[in-house]
Amino acid sequence: MNRSIPVEKNKEYIIEINGLGCEGEGVGKIDNFTVFVPQAIVGEKIKVKIVKVKKNYAYGRVIEIIESSPHRIEPVCDIYNRCGGCNIQHLDYNFQLEIKKQRVIDCISRMGKLKDVVVHSTIGMKQPYRYRNKVQLPVGVNEKGETVIGFYAPRSHNIIDMKICYIQDKIADDVILIMKKWIKNNKIKPYDEIHHSGIIRHIMVRKAFKTGEVMVVIVTNGNSLPCKSDLVNLLKDNIEGICSIVQNINDKKTNVILGRQCKLLWGKDTITDYIGRFKFNISPLSFFQVNPVQTEILYNKVLEYAELTGEETVFDAYCGTGTISLFLSEKAKKVYGVEIIPEAIKNAVKNAEINGVVNTEFIVGKSEDEIPKLIKDGKKADVIVVDPPRKGCDEKLLNCIAGSLPKKIVYVSCDPSTLARDLGILNELGYKTIEIQPVDMFGNTAHVENVALLVCSNK
Ligand SMILES: C[S@@+](CC[C@H](N)C(=O)[O-])C[C@H]1O[C@@H](n2cnc3c(N)ncnc32)[C@H](O)[C@@H]1O
After folding, report:
1. What is the pLDDT of residues 399-457, one digit of tens each?
2. Does residue 396 line the site of ligand 1, with CB under 6 A?
3. Which domain CATH number covers 35?
4. Catalytic residue chosen out of the listed positions 86, 165, 414, 456
5. Is residue 72 situated within a structural domain?
6. What is the b/e burial string over 300-330, where b = at least 16 CB atoms within 10 angstroms of the residue's CB?
7. 341 Cβ closer than 6 Å to some ligand 1 atom
8. At residue 107, does pLDDT exceed 70?
9. Domain range holding 155?
């Protein structure tokens, strides 16, 4: 054993859990050395087996719960202990909401160094199961040579075979069953990522909750898709609501799930869903929020924070298929949406058209390049909304938007750490964070979405 590291791999220790990691794991100390323990809860005393030791921390596995938390519940899912899909299913739902709020508070004080920010209680779901409208699952083979479809185990690429996923719509379970049957009956080769061989890489299922329309996307390692008419017939005959079957080609040696090329095998190339009164056409490659019920709550919060009167110009950076832009358009004079994916912008333009919205304009490109161009062209935004991916905003964009002096910035974020970092930067640039509303879009996982309201502190 290394002298400076007080724990050894495969040995058992007793640990008290007094912190929470960003993946929802418990955190404790052994001789002042940090140990992360998935599925352990603050306040618990646990016997752990050390499974991984790094220079500054280790990972432990729960062997025995010596003192249990009152917030511990029996997970509904049989494979919860192995699957990497959910990570806090062992916590009662009210406590899940509480720890999500606490994580936001911790991030903004530690990373953002912000004071006097009101963090509201997390807005929870009525039912934290069966809420996701989209699933993307890898397809592979287990040690017995059987086809497996499911999420990867945590921190690995071992696929944990799944029959039921309680956070997905039930239709995803039905599609997985059919895909397994079709692969077995037709001896189709699942993808082997080590040798970059085989055919079927991923299955994506999307359901539009308001219309019931279903899209199935089969991601293949190249053009070939044998027995496709059999697959189309099986899906058509057995999947309620199916109206789009697409082959997506991804022949690259990469962890990115979808390739750029899509071939329509049957039906329509988009499905239609509604958020609020707005109708959206969603293509295989476009981003669309995975929890449409909570999305409506989130977007209404964006609208409330924006406080539009009908006179304002708004920039919506990272606009995806223009969902937030359309919500804002009802109360704004003009909305400019910027998004990097051309297909998403095509959808956004179409979405504005089918909703009869005439005061939006959508631009393809990086927000950090296109927003400065809009400003250089003399466009002045009263309110700027940003909704970046996990890594947060490019610093060039933050400098540019703060320099353009909007009355307000509304920051939508799916990652409290990068949100805190960016709010810290904006604070230095003269934009004070007034309040943050966490919204639970991803029940039973440690993720939390937030909307933050910032105002110019120099006025
Ligand atoms: C969290 S999503 C938000 C989408 C949209 N606001 C919504 O609510 O559906 C982030 C979006 O940013 C896009 N994106 C990523 N990097 C970008 C960049 N540098 N500039 C513009 N858009 C970007 C992604 O393609 C994705 O559509």
Report:
1. 999 999 999 999 999 999 999 999 999 999 999 999 999 999 999 999 999 999 999 98
2. no
3. 2.40.50.140
4. 414
5. no
6. ebbbebbebeeebbbbbbbbbbbbbbbbbbb
7. yes
8. yes
9. 134-275
